[in-house]
Amino acid sequence: MSDKLISIVLPTFNGARFISESIDSILNQTYRNWELIIVNDCSTDNTLEIINEYAKRDGRIKIISNQKNKKLPASLNIGFEYAQGDYYTWTSDDNIYYPEALEYMVKFLNNNSYYDLVCCDYELIEEDGTFKQIHSELYPHNLFELSKNAVVGACFLYTKEIADKIGKYNEKTFCAEDYDYWCRLALAGNIYFSDRVLYKYRFNLQSLTSTKQDLIKEQVYNIRLKYSLKILKKCCAANQQKRQVLLDFYNITKDYRWLFAALKDNFLNFIYIILKTSLFSLFEEFTFVLYIISHKNNNIAFYGASLFLENLIKKYKINSKNIVGIVDKDPKKHGKNIGKYKIYPLEEIKNLNADKIVFTIKKNNEKIYKNLKAFFKENNINIYLEKNLFFK
């Protein structure tokens, strides 16, 4: 069987500083059957001059020049329209392949037809090329982690068949087009994560990764929201793992769409997020107001002139005729008001004509419940104790 052709797309915009190193690393590959499609996205430096010199020396290099700046995802799509290969990959104008990178990945895909993409680990280098760190030391290299981060990374090879199946790079996901693509590929096919280090990723202060951090975060959040639960399902994540992922995403973004995603996926996931965040206080407020509305035919008294109760009465302007007062054991509060409601000693509960008494305290409430029950029994008081409203 003849060697399969690899199509490498290299999009570039003002990449003159490092593009020679990037191209040289491709020319130095031990695997020789490749084509390099460089898409020049209207560079204003001498990038075009540099890449034209390379194209003159090696017929495997093709140059495409955009007539206007189209940005990275569109340039990738343009490049792959010209691709003739059996396998696809792309690289950046400031990054470097190890010499054996393509050979290792093409052999893997040739021998493992179950997989549609192989991705390898890589080292992070400083702008001057000095070693910084291995990427997998920052993020685990697996499908579960892909639900949270773009861990396919910068060194990969995938089949033309899977590319035809999932379609083009999404041009609306500029600055995170790779993450969107890997998520779609993961759902449509199978990814092999190799721990072999075969690439150098440069921290370039002029790169999109460095200059578009806010946009990257926004795009990544939206991609996670769209694909994460599906990927977690595919990798058979346990419910506990899934709930923690959802909680982490909510805490990072404060985006209520994660609550709806959790509710749609599993009601317990929704409850987990509520209980584990400050949203629990909102949940309590909602429960409180709903209780008042739904019990308008009962006379209600509150036990505990708490700050919680005071805030709720003021916040929601509670002014219900069926609320007959508040009882509290603190004599300093007796005779005062919260809103329009007077605070009474517990001994006066008989005179309030209450049908129900609701707790608005959360500390030691089980003990207080037992004491109140005993007090009511001793004094022949027939009032229903609503103990479940704020009990955890």
List the helices and strands and how they pair.
Elements: E1 6-12, H1 19-27, E2 34-40, H2 47-57, E3 61-65, H3 72-81, E4 87-90, E5 96-97, H4 101-111, E6 117-125, E7 131-134, H5 143-146, E8 156-159, H6 160-166, H7 177-188, E9 191-202, H8 208-211, H9 213-234, H10 239-253, H11 257-265, H12 267-276, H13 279-294, E10 300-303, H14 307-315, E11 323-327, E12 337-338, E13 341-344, E14 356-359, H15 365-378, E15 384-386
Parallel strand pairs: 1-2, 1-4, 2-3, 6-9, 10-11, 10-14, 11-13, 14-15
Antiparallel strand pairs: 4-8, 5-9, 6-7, 6-8, 12-13
Model description:
This protein has 15 helices and 15 strands. With 392 residues, it is of the alpha/beta class. It folds into three domains: 220 residues, Spore Coat Polysaccharide Biosynthesis Protein SpsA, Chain A (Alpha-Beta Complex), CATH 3.90.550; 40 residues, no CATH class; 100 residues, Rossmann fold (3-Layer(aba) Sandwich), CATH 3.40.50. The radius of gyration is 32 Å and the shape is elongated.
